[in-house]
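dumping these here so i dont lose them again. two proteins, back to back, each one seq then structure tokens. dont judge the mess
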Amino acid sequence: MSHNTFGKLLRCTTFGESHGPAIGCVVDGFPPGLEISPEEIKRELERRATGRSRHTSQRKEADDVQILSGVFEGRTTGTPIALVIENTDARSRDYANIKDSIRPGHADFTYWKKYGIRDYRGGGRSSARETTMRVAAGALARKWLQQEYAIEIQGWLAQLGPIRTDSEMDWSVIDDNVFFCPNASLVPELEAFMDQLRKSGDSVGARVNVIARNVPPGWGEPVYGKLDAELAAAMMSINAAKGVEIGAGFESVTQQGTEHRDEITAEGFQSNHAGGILGGISSGQDVVVSTAFKPTSSLRIPCRSVDTGGREVEVVTKGRHDPCVGIRATPIVEAMMALVLMDHALRHRGQIGA
């Protein structure tokens, strides 16, 4: 399996499977001198963790990160940073009854066709468990961006199924609820919706938005290294992601040019339909990205499929699964935003010298 690494100057390689002994990553190209500790990384991992509420998978991983290299006396050294987390709460027996079945909506079919073999335990490499290491690496990038450029990154759940949550925004409450909802008054409605959904055995999709403030103008390349293109690729690489918008996104289709063009006065830009990126290069405005996540495909409701021998079968997925993967996706999109921005910061510094 190739392409487990992303980034140009800041390169992040992840490894491991959902039910393997451990997962990990190697972050190469990280500058020396940043103070970092396992506890700081763990705080970000806890925001993403399963088992925080009844609305997510009840798999409870310790997520204790080990820093194997690249950090000495609490500071990054400039050498590759290796991070490892042991899997401590995998239950492979939950998948024994479907080990030969192809789960519709999952990567089972495509992995089987591509490789001729697949790890059926919890999805193996295609499991969202892999995103744990993105959040771990993102914790490093996020702190570096804040210290070097005062960049602040904040994500939120913008929509859960039919419920839009961000018509009224209160940034201070996002981390006070398990949904990362920016409107505290909607949390009871979200809880009731998820309780009913969980009882029905079904699942639902979600939209997660993320904003990066204080991004300097000039980051990104004008053709094949566009900042928005690489942000879109990063978000689409997250499990269950099905769509990405930058700024106004698909609303641009119905906008007229006089509305969409972000007019500029002596005081600066008067709107931000571009999402902080023009011609693939950051404009100095807030960078705004929205990602759509599909409903979870692991359901206890029977469905039709085939097994690895081509025979028709009925599939019922047992075990512990998220009825909405988007509930835990906010720290993941924040991490991918941080990693892409830091990579572009280093690239810009290398080319322009500032």
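---- next one ----
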Amino acid sequence: MSKRSDMADTPSNPVNMHRENWPESYDAQMFPLVISLLQAHEAHHSRAVTVMAASGLSLVEFDVLASLRRSPPPHALTPSDLQRAMLITSGGLTKVLQQLEMRGLVSRSTDDADRRVKPVALTDQAMPVLEKVMSESHTIVGGWIRQSLTGAEIKQLTLLLKKLVNTPSLS
């Protein structure tokens, strides 16, 4: 049994603590769901970060490289397009791009049509690093999910999470 499953029966479990110590705000249907989503996110995040760190990448650096890799060849985007794809501040993105450029994982050039635009592109040096991290991440995270859920459960969970993500908020 996993550490998380064992926690469900302990008094320090957030669901039990909330139910016992703040019962007026406890929703027996929603609170366990939200806590489970947060715990699943943390479990995924910790596995993914471990894989990325082994290749010397932070989560945001990997996100930049993966966003570039998802774009059509030559795998280049403007900083504005990257920022929209990643939901990162322009200042934060500038710092990450500088770090990746110093390490030779991205290059910046000037657009001949508009000299103000400096597309960011993956370098040949970045490709094997990115492919290795993605492969290891699929193996570790995918293995963890497949060990926990059946194919039908994965499909059902994916559909349900997409439904949540695509439902407009009430406010």
